[in-house]
Amino acid sequence: MIQTQKRIRTSMGYLLLAMLLICVLALSGCGTAPNTQESVQSEGGYTFTDAIGQEITVHNPQRVVSLMGSFSEIWILAGGADTLVGTSHDTVDNRDLGLPDDIAIVGTYQNPNIEEILALNPDLVLLSSETTRTDSHVALKDALQGAGITAAYFSVTHFEDYLNMLEICTDITGNKEAYHTNGTAVQERIAQIIADNTLEDEPSALLMVTYSGGIRAQNSDTMTGKMLSELGCKNILDDYPSMLQDFSVEKIIETDPDYIFVIPMGNDDALAQKNLKENVESNPAWSSLTAVANDRYILLPKDLFLYKPNAVWDESYAYLAALLHQPAV
Q1: Residue 11 burial (10 A CB sphere; 0-12, 13-18, 19+)
Q2: Is position 236 within any domain?
Q3: Biggest CA-to-CA distance, the chain
Q4: Domain of 220?
Q5: Does 88 share its domain with 162?
Q6: Last residue of a domain, one of 154, 183, 212
Q7: What's the rounded Cα separation, in Å, for the pair 208 and 143?
Q8: Any long-range contacts for 249-252 (C-beta under 8 Å, 24+ apart)?
Q9: Which of 142, 226, 235, 304 is the most exposed place for a label (fewest CB within 10 A)?
């Protein structure tokens, strides 16, 4: 009997020792657990403030719809390609993102189709706060939120805006390497281009967008306008803001800019060019302008200056810098 009791006590001792070892191993494993930010994101979601002031919380979204081509690309650059289930028509028209043929197209950027969006059962929709039709994106907010879908709004005009959206998206996907590769590394290259190429004599420049319905001048607040300003150009629209609303060939002739840059807009380049010739170049004094005479009347490529260049924004800066350093004819 005594021996039996000893065996029982010995077995219990081994059991207690085993339990102690398990606890020690479990505690030591805590050292390899995810960091605090990752743990918070996995349990409580990732929270940020969007472009219209909403506090947005997302929980590892697996079905994402983007209503703008550049936003679709940013989500893909952030590592979210596998979760993009729907997008707007301009994504496939204007960008080669290698999307699958069966990806859902939920209308155009200007006119997204709410029924088609809801049919995809998304858990996150990326929208623009800057659509020219105020009812096209912002008006979807209540319908999406009423269906329990997170609607996050972004505004991207300049590179810094792109960098901010990319950071938010990589925080959501957890792919911070993508933030460096497609964001901060690009930022470093832009800074070097500006440092190496800024003009000291501050030449004057006119920046225009031409489309089938007319011509619009742009100031330094626009995407390309800001790049020109950072490279040392003086935009004539900054001194004549009335031309933003009332385009005047006579004022252009009066100011006689050193450079004239044109961005074609829309799907019909031929019609846009025709409009430019009829409404601007037909003026007898046009050919005598300094920019025209010096072969500095330049058509800019859409992919770098109409559409957001995103991860190749540095190429847009480099393209302009090369043009600005070409000698006059």
Answers
A1: exposed
A2: yes
A3: 121
A4: 199-324
A5: yes
A6: 183
A7: 37
A8: 249/279, 249/280, 249/283, 249/286, 252/206, 252/289
A9: 142
CATH of the domain at 234: 3.40.50.1980
Query: Residue 83 is encoded by which pair of tokens?
Result: 């979760």
Tell me the C-alpha distance between 296 and 329, whole Å.
Answer: 9
pTM, 2 dp: 0.83
Looking at the structure, tell me whether residues 210 and 90 fall in a common domain: no
Reported as a single tens digit per residue, the pLDDT across 152-196 is 999 999 999 999 999 999 999 999 999 999 999 999 999 999 999
Euclidean distance between CA atoms 245 and 120, whole angstroms: 41
Q: What does the alpha-carbon distance between residue 300 and residue 297 come to, in Å, rounded to a whole number?
A: 10
Token pair of 174, please? 């957890």
Per-residue pLDDT tens over the stretch 225-249: 999 999 999 999 999 888 888 888 8
DSSP annotation string for 34-66: PPHHHHHHHHH-EEEE-TTS-EEEE---SSEEE
Query: What six digits make up the tokens of 146?
Result: 């009423």
Query: Which candidate, 199, 169, 167, places its Cα nearest to that of 180?
Result: 167
Q: What is the rounded (10 degree) CA torsion for 316, 318, 323, 325?
A: 150
User: Treating both helix axes as pointing N-terminal to C-terminal, what angle do 223-230 and 313-324 enclose, rounded to 10 degrees?
Assistant: 50
Residue for token pair 């030591």:
28
List of residues 6+ apart from 123 with CB closer than 8 A? 58, 59, 61, 62, 63, 64, 149, 150
Strand pairing partners for 65?
86, 125
Residues 50 and 158 in one domain: yes
> CA-to-CA distance for 278 and 258, rounded, in angstroms?
22
Q: What residues in the chain have per-residue pLDDT under 70?
A: 1-44, 131-135, 267-268
Q: Evaluate the CA torsion angle 118, 120, 124, 125 in order and state its sign.
A: negative
CB 47 within 8 A of CB 68: no
